[in-house]
Specification:
single chain; alpha/beta; Aldehyde Dehydrogenase, Chain A, domain 1; Aldehyde Dehydrogenase, Chain A, domain 2; 2 domains; seven-stranded mixed β-sheet; six-stranded mixed β-sheet; 15 helices; 24 strands; about 20% strand
Length: about 475
């Protein structure tokens, strides 16, 4: 496929291959972009941001609504593309396309609510004759760098609010999964996005991504990915606004009053969907000792129902991880937990990129699976005596994206909600839950800023104060 630079398709002699995580086969190739491509995209965006700023709000809404419709019309093609390049099951891929369509419709609705407020200047002595207000204006050029795991929806979380706010956009998809983003770029242009205001650049993060990060003409940079890359961005982005959605090792707390059927289902859904490759996947599970054994039995029973295999097969409920290198690392972490005293009660084996859904119980705290982000299909269980112990263990992390708590006691729910250090606390729900309109982001090394359409629009805008002195 060709990349998009300033609304025009561009091919290059040097390309990067896109591989199917399940079969290892080549799906397609894309241009291996370079610094010159970034420069061309930014020069185009400089013109494009002026066009976008002058675009009437109803035209931005129209573009967003058109994209929403076009996504559903191309659902089959996009779903199959996501399966081939990401390894999601076909059901997961279809859901992502539908979710992305809804995201653009949310953005269209939220665009109609962009407004400022009047300011009470006369409340200040000496300012009795002043009147004024503030407005939100487009920030200019938004750079968006997206990950491999939920590529279409996470691109939408950056592109849709950027358009709603009236900005030009340069999108850099993950090297492993660029195809769906290129299709999205085609749909945006078909929907009426001004050509100069859109680029979708393929290439290596170390070259294309790095150039986007460092260029001062890009006024807002939105990145989803690893903590290491996020820290690099902070050190190299210069004077621009940034939004970082980084890693997590999300915890789920299960108290003895919990509905265990619901809690175990949330663990399965949150721990093994997309083979555990979601930043808010359930990874650490702390269970009160009274219900520990019962929870394990129910969880193992549900986990064994997962059908591992070809993601294009409608019967498959869990597919592969993104590549063999990560598959090897995930299994090594599971084995380390076992060597240090944990016990694997189901799973733990690997066939190329397919890893059995794995449950480790009695997991020592000094293991990688308890301390870092696994990004794979395994959950680590540990017995706790009290809610306070569970909260302390939850907070014993460099991350703080989301957490879940299962309890029937309102006092426990409020205590957990108030004391857990995370951007979101889900009560009687797993940390994997996300509504696309809610503020989404983390504490500590889980990131900076918040996504969610309304909140992203605010991040991608500049605030301007206008004041009149009416004294004659």
């Amino acid at each position: 496929m060709e990349m998009i630079v300033g609304g025009k398709k561009v091919s290059k002699a040097k390309t990067l291959k896109v591989y199917n995580p399940y079969s290892g086969e080549i799906v397609d190739d894309v241009p291996d972009g370079d610094i010159n491509d970034v420069e061309n995209a930014i020069n185009s965006a400089i013109e494009g941001k002026k066009i976008m700023k002058d675009l009437p709000l109803h035209k931005r809404v129209e573009i967003l609504e058109n994209v929403s419709t076009l996504l559903l019309e191309r659902e089959k093609e996009l779903s199959e593309t996501i399966v081939k390049e990401v390894g999601k099951t076909i059901k997961e891929a279809k859901n992502e396309v539908i979710r992305t369509s809804e995201l653009f419709r949310y953005a269209a609705e939220e665009a109609k609510r962009i407004h400022g407020e009047t300011l009470p200047f006369s409340s200040l002595k000496g300012s009795e004759h002043k009147r004024g207000y503030y407005v939100l204006e487009p920030i200019g050029i938004v750079g968006a760098i997206t990950p491999f795991n939920v590529p279409l929806s996470l691109a939408a979380h950056k592109v849709a609010p950027a358009i709603a706010a009236g900005n030009a956009v340069i999108l850099k998809p993950a090297t492993q999964t660029p195809l769906n983003a290129l299709i999205l770029g085609e749909l945006l242009l078909e929907a009426g996005m001004p050509e100069k205001a859109l680029s979708v650049l393929t290439g290596r993060g170390s070259i294309v991504g790095n150039a986007i990060v460092k260029d001062p003409r890009i006024r807002f940079l939105s990145f989803t990915g690893s903590v290491e890359t996020g820290e690099y961005i902070c050190q190299n982005a210069g004077m621009k606004k940034i939004g970082l959605e980084l890693g997590s090792n999300s915890a789920l707390i299960v108290m003895d009053s919990a509905d265990l059927d619901k809690a175990t289902q949330a663990t399965v859904d949150g721990g093994f969907s997309l083979a555990g490759q979601v930043c808010i996947s359930v990874q650490r599970v702390f269970i009160q000792e009274k219900v520990y054994e019962e929870f394990i039995n129910k969880l193992v029973e549900k986990t064994k129902r997962i059908i591992l295999g070809d993601p294009m097969d409608e019967k498959t409920t869990m597919g592969p991880v993104i590549d063999e290198q990560n598959a090897q690392r995930i299994v090594e972490w599971i084995q380390e937990a076992e060597v240090k005293g944990g016990k694997i009660v189901t799973g733990g084996k690997r066939n190329y990129t397919l890893i059995e859904p794995t449950i480790v119980i009695d997991t020592p705290l000094e293991t990688k699976i308890m301390q870092n982000e696994l990004f794979g299909p395994a959950v680590a269980l540990r017995k706790i005596k009290s809610l306070q112990e569970a909260i302390d263990l939850t907070n014993r992390s460099i991350y703080g994206l989301q957490a879940g708590v299962f309890t029937e006691k309102i006092s426990e729910a409020f205590k957990a909600a108030e004391e857990i250090e995370a951007g979101g606390v889900m009560i009687n729900e797993g940390p994997r839950y996300r509504a696309d309109f809610m503020p989404y982001g983390g504490y500590k090394k889980s990131g900076i800023g918040r996504e969610g359409i309304k909140f992203a629009i605010e991040e991608m805008s500049e605030m301007k104060v206008i004041c009149f002195d009416l004294k004659e």
